[in-house]
User: What shape does this take?
Amino acid sequence: MYSIGTGPAVWLAGILTLCVALRFISQQARTPSNGPFTVPFIGTLAFWGKKKLLHLRLNEWSHQYGDFFYFKIGRSPVFVLNSPEAVNDLLIKRGSKYSSRPRLSNQASLITQNARIVALPYNDQWRLYHDLLGMQNSKIFMPFQEFESRQSLLNLLDYPDDFWKK
Assistant: This one.
C-alpha cells in the first residue's frame, strides 16, 4: 500500500495554522484598540473570571480603559459609553451616524428583499416607506390588525401547541 507520509500533513497543518493566525491578527487590527483582548469566537468571556457579574466587570474595565471602550461577547461587538461627555459626543453630536438599525444577515436580506420597513436601515428607501405608511395611511389597516391580533390570541387559547399553523 502506498503512503504519502506525515510530511504533507504537517505542512498542511502549518499552513492552516498560519492562515488562522493571520486572519486573527488582521481582525484585531480592524477593531478599536481601547478595550480588553478578545479571542476569536469567544470574545472576552474567557477573561471574565468566575461568577463575575457584568456590571462589576464593566466597572473594572471603565477604570482601566476609560469612558469609551469596546469588547466582544461571542461574535457580537459591544461599545461602552461610560460618561455623559462620551454619550453627548457620540450620540447627540454625531447621532445621525450611529442611529441606523443593525445590518441584517445575508439570509435575512435575501428573504426580505429589503422590502420590510422594520428591517431597513435609515436611508431614502426607509423615508419613502415611512411616508407611504405614515399615521394617516396606517389608520386604514387598524381594523385588519385588530382582527388578526384577536384571531391569533383565539388560536393561542384553543391550540396552544400549534396555534401559529391555524
Remarks:
- The radius of gyration is 25 Å.
- The chain is about 55% helix and 5% strand.
